[in-house]
Design goal:
The chain has 9 helices and 13 strands. The chain has helices spanning about 1-30, 45-60, 80-85, 195, 210-220, 235-245, 260-265, 290-300, 310-320; strands at about 95, 115-120, 130-135, 145, 165, 170, 185-190, 230-235, 270, 300-305, 320-325, 335-340, 345.
Length: about 350
């Protein structure tokens, strides 16, 4: 009898343990990141793309194109005439922010350092103040990257040696955000890849190819050119709202878009996520090939993690996919980038 009671007690305990664990697992699943799609296979042209990439390292460099001391790269193509031409795109007077609210709690795509820490100080009868702290490089904060952010073989864009140009005390001397403190005012071209695919969003991990970009240009009737800012829309924030945050998988620019970028020479490459597609099967050992190609070889800057949802809704309603864009970094001496709140003006 004693053995039977012990067995029954053990069985009930195991059953209760299983029930509790079941609730815990379900709770964790609901509170965690969005389900990850299975990793895609390597594209059939991966070996050829890797070989091309190594050749493009030399062929597509614009080092010295605007002088050996140049710090602005393709932003030099935003001339006064370019600015005046872009201003003519303002027809309705509609102004739309391209930045998502700053993240104030951790999530799958917001690590602890990426949380925007807003500290409200003492609240008195006369008012209050607050402090801001943020590590903006990452997957969530709308920001720009300068070529102080990525190096190849100890060199930055234009062959500037990293040694002595970047120090913990002074930050980045050449190529910092101070080169853009007067702001960017130019033409933006929206590449609505979700609409092209007939979907609410492009699934994570799907590479956006040159064929996709050119198919959209044919469909929309507009295309990016020198000094412009192409904005790649995959519906990242729409998916995040419905499916929850995720990390590690990005529908971004595929390697075959690099010649397209070199031909067009935009001032900035834009995206509503990180610009590099990820994961990259077959590209192991090659960190962020698109970042390297634009920042290090060609002098094209990056503006990424934008929230394009409102701009896309406006562009679709107006059936107009080119508009004025303006943004400026915080004028931080030595900065490798900056949070931004770009504005699209239709």
């Amino acid at each position: 009898m004693g053995r039977r009671l012990k067995f029954a007690g053990l069985s009930i305990g195991l059953l209760l343990f299983g029930v509790v664990c079941g609730f815990q697992l379900r709770g964790q699943g609901q509170a965690g990141a969005a389900p990850q799609a299975p990793a895609p296979p390597a594209p059939a042209d991966t070996a050829a793309m890797r070989a091309n990439y190594e050749r493009w390292r030399t062929e597509f460099k614009t080092w010295g194109k605007w002088g050996t001391d140049d710090n602005k790269g393709t932003s030099n193509l935003i001339t006064t005439q370019k600015v005046m031409s872009a201003m003519k795109l303002v027809k309705e007077g509609i102004v739309v922010s391209l930045a998502h609210p700053e993240p104030q709690q951790a999530a799958a795509d917001v690590n602890a350092n990426g949380v925007f820490k807003r500290t409200t100080n003492a609240i008195t009868d006369g008012g209050t103040t607050d402090n801001y702290q943020v590590s903006y490089h990452g997957q969530t904060v709308a920001h720009i990257d300068t070529w102080c952010h990525f190096f190849v073989d100890g060199q930055m864009y234009n062959g500037i040696p990293v040694k002595d140009n970047i120090t913990p005390e002074a930050g980045c001397k050449k190529g910092s955000v101070m080169n853009w403190k007067d702001g960017i005012v130019t033409r933006a071209v929206l590449y609505d890849i979700a609409q092209l695919k007939g979907a609410e969003w492009v699934e994570p991990g799907v590479p956006v190819t040159r064929a996709d970009l050119e198919a959209w240009e044919k469909k929309s009737g507009v295309k990016a050119g020198p000094g412009d800012v192409p904005l790649l829309y995959i519906g990242r924030w729409k998916r995040r709202q419905k499916m929850g945050p995720w990390t590690g998988q990005v529908s971004g620019y595929y390697a075959d878009t690099i010649p397209w970028m070199h031909e067009r020479l935009p001032a900035f490459i834009g995206h509503d996520f990180n610009i590099d597609w990820n994961p990259r099967p077959g590209w192991e050992g090659m960190p962020n090939p698109i970042h390297v190609a634009v920042l290090n070889w060609m002098g094209i800057n990056i503006v990424e993690c934008l929230d394009l949802e409102q701009a896309v809704a406006t562009a679709r309603r107006l059936k107009r996919y080119e508009f004025l864009i303006t943004f400026a970094p915080l004028p931080v001496e030595g900065g490798t980038g900056s949070p931004v709140n770009p504005l699209a003006i239709f």
